[in-house]
Amino acid sequence: xxxxxxxxxxxxxxxxxxxxxxxxxxxxxxxxxxxxxxxxxxxxxxxxxxxxxxxxxxxxxxxxxxxxxxxxxxxxxxxxxxxxxxxxxxxxxxxxxxxxxxxxxxxxxxxxxxxxxxxxxxxxxxxxxxxxxxxxxxxxxxxxxxxxxxxxxxxxxxxxxxxxxxxxxxxxxxxxxxxxxxxxxxxxxxxxxxxxxxxxxxxxxxxxxxxxxxxxxxxxxxxxxxxxxxxxxxxxxxxxxxxxxxxxxxxxxxxxxxxxxxxxxxxxxxxxxxxxxxxxxxxxxxxxxxxxxxxxxxxxxxxxxxxxxxxxxxxxxxxxxxxxxxxxxxxxxxxxxxxxxxxxxxxxxxxxxxxxxxxxxxxx
Length: 364
Description:
Helix content: 25-40%
Number of helices: 9
Order of helices and strands: EEEEEHEHEHHEEEHHEHEEHHEE
Strand order of the largest sheet: 13-12-11-10-9-8-15-14
Mean pLDDT: 82
Structural class: alpha+beta
Shape: elongated
Radius of gyration: 25 Å
Largest sheet: 8 strands, antiparallel
Oligomer: single chain
């Protein structure tokens, strides 16, 4: 008679013995209202001490520190990172009172829980995190109207053109502003130093997967290549860790995306409307700068100006070469002229980057 099969045993989570995380809980610098009750929640954070990057973070009611720490430990990483595949071998806390309840709540007793003295580095991380949260709670952008207006105008054209309907995220599009030609002079003038063009950006059109619509503007082609190589779809999920992905963006990347107006704060939508965004459109643009060793946040004025020119040039280029781009008939290269900061600016574009010589004559 065949031996009776034993009952199926629940699979134990994998343990990464080399991984150590440091965690703590702090009152959040914001208020939450739930079922008519207003309170200050707590934020639990786990940090990888070797890199200083946040491994996991969770928000919870006050007095539930161990439970909130567990949620931060088991929750998936921030997009585009996949869910965790392995638990750390060692967890280190700075609050001894949280160790017993956390140890009891862990799904695997093999995970060691230790306690250490207060860490100034962890306090500094919380200070930076809270400053960022306070900035995010501000309903409007810090960009002045003179910077936001041309950026909104370029985004209006991007939303109406919708290049993601026929362009994929590969290959990227090189966007290279060219130095302006010498102005006409009435008479002889002293020689001047030639104007320097802004460095190129590398655009990745987002939306082919119908998840995020917009464009990512990379500061270098190498950043684009490294980021794609570290993305979850390019390698096993266990290898696509936050450390691996963030390290690829050595310079700042600007993400321009579109969100439903109903999901954003009225003050933010009103600010965009004052800057020229059509109030009748159901979507509004959002702007995020990330990478370069800095915390994600809104773009600087200089970054926003570069993005306005790049997006406007991208829209003109894609509209002119829609058929070739849709058919994948690469290389495609052209030069367009964009009115920017009160002057015409020639911008050379190529898809893929460096695949063809730039035309010498600006487009009409």
